[in-house]
Amino acid sequence: MKRRLALVGLTSFVLGAASVYAAKVVFDPKAYYAGKSPAEASAALLARAEVLAGQGSWERIGVGRVYYLSGNKQKGQALFDGVLGGKVAKSDLYRIAEVYAVAGEWEKAKPMFDRAIAMDAQDHRGLIRAGCWYNLNGDRAHAEELFDKGFTQESAEVWHFALAAGSYSGVKPF
């Protein structure tokens, strides 16, 4: 019985390794974009990215971001909803909020930022970034409250100063 089990395990391993090797040899990423129109290349690359994203929340948000900001809001929103339907991390909320903010949809972004802040009011990076978006959307008083809290947590972070400064000049966080 042990020999048979060992033989099955070895066979499975060999077949698995061979299939991985074959996939690497046959796979040609250029097939997704070479000779295609920009729209066709984008669609093919996004379809592959969606498969590769699997169940990773950041990955699905990243793919959804491209769909959403390139005009396929329905597909992007479906990916966001999939993330939001499970256990949601504050970083997921911040990432989705920033997509909405970049898209000029402050009314969708604002509650996501607020929800993320409520999950962890000590996250200085999130506080500063959310403050930037509040400032860019005309709520300077709340932005400065968030800046105060963020700088209280970390007052020597160059990116906090650069991002906050940009928000007063109309520069979106990156």
Helix and strand topology:
Layout: H1 2-26, H2 38-53, H3 57-69, H4 73-84, H5 90-102, H6 106-119, H7 124-136, H8 140-153, H9 158-168
Helix pairs in contact: 2-3, 3-4, 3-5, 5-6, 6-7, 7-8, 7-9
What does this structure look like?
- The model has no long low-confidence stretch (mean pLDDT 89).
- It contains nine helices and no strands.
- It is mainly alpha-helical.
Give structural attributes.
Serine Threonine Protein Phosphatase 5, Tetratricopeptide repeat, 174 residues, mainly alpha, single chain
Rounded to an integer in angstroms, the radius of gyration calculated over CA atoms is: 22 Å
Major sheet size, sense and barrel closure: none
Helix and strand string, N-terminal first?
Answer: HHHHHHHHH
Number of helices: 9
* Overall mean confidence score, pLDDT: 89
Find the CATH topology of the domain at 89-174. Answer: Serine Threonine Protein Phosphatase 5, Tetratricopeptide repeat
